[in-house]
Amino acid sequence: MLQHLALMNVVAPLVALSLSGRGPFAPASLLLAGFVQLVALWVWHAPTVQHLAASSSAAQAALMSVLAGAAIWFWCALIAASQWRGLIALLLTGKLACLLGALLIFAPRDLYNLDGLVLALCTTGPSSLADQQLAGLLMITACPLSYLVTSVALAARMLARLDSDRRLTDASARAR
Asked: Domain segments of the chain: what residues?
């Protein structure tokens, strides 16, 4: 969980910021990028996919690459989009990511029954309900934080622009 949280919420936005202004990321692609990112995230958490990732380092690396690509595309499209569209995209994708985290937290049993992951940062043995709940708590904490910071920055920029526009309008009215 820590790997993909860091990848999707820290690395991907930083890569997107470094690519901003250089890529052909049309604002219209934000909806599609958000959809692809959510599908990749939810598919990644399907028990069958988790079993595949747990059994093969190549499969796990490939699946992490898909998550990374989808997240980078989303953040690039978000940067290229208007601030209102960006806020709406953050709200929708953030809510669905949090829903997934809540499902992991409140599931009555271990959904995965994994023996362990091949590319795990640490070896803790078989999965358990407590592991799954901790993963859900991490998800429900980390995702909103990155989305909240981005949303606050977008909202602050929007308010500053509205204030600037109001001042220009006031100055223009006084000049007449």
From this structure: 2-175
